[in-house]
Amino acid sequence: MTDTKKRSDCPVSCSLDVWGDKWSLLIVRDLMFSKQCTYGDFLKSDEKIATNILASRLQTLEANGIISKSDHPESKAKVLYKLTPKGIDLVPIMIEINLWAEKYFTIPSEQKLMLKEVKKDKEAFIKTAKRDLKKGI
Question: In angstroms, rounded to a whole number, what is the distance separating the alpha carbons of residues 49 and 54?
């Protein structure tokens, strides 16, 4: 893990130092739910992240062990980004953020369908999602 200057020893504060900016969880989301894994895939997201911000966030997430990168099997010009086990452990947090958003915002029907499955058995859903993500490591 990179030597990030901590604001305090509070667990929430320490966690936010790693993934709490405006863009990092969106990168994690794309790797977790959309299976987007190249630089170009991230640039295509609806949020329209700037290239300099994307490069910085990918570097920070990699330095903190949330994501890893590897050579693309089909192109020497591309890099594949994947969640590490540490990144995969963010699945429950991402599920809770989605549940919270469903309560207070209008969300796409695709997310509603996923959350319907979550609500049937949250623990089983999380276990399956983590298992599926670990297959890609």
Answer: 6
For residue 126, give the nearest of 45, 32, 20, 3 by alpha carbon.
Answer: 32
Q: What pLDDT score was predicted for residue 35? A: 66
The per-residue pLDDT for 39 is: 95
List the CATH code of the domain at 13-135: 1.10.10.10
> Can you give 26-69 as a three-state secondary structure string?
HHHHHHHHHCCCCHHHHHCCCCCCCHHHHHHHHHHHHHCCCEEE
Which residues fall within 8 angstroms of residue 53, CB to CB, at 6 or more apart? 23
Which structure tokens are listed for 54?
């994307």
Q: What ranges do the domains of the chain cover?
A: 13-135
Distance separating alpha carbons of residues 26 and 42, to the nearest angstrom: 9
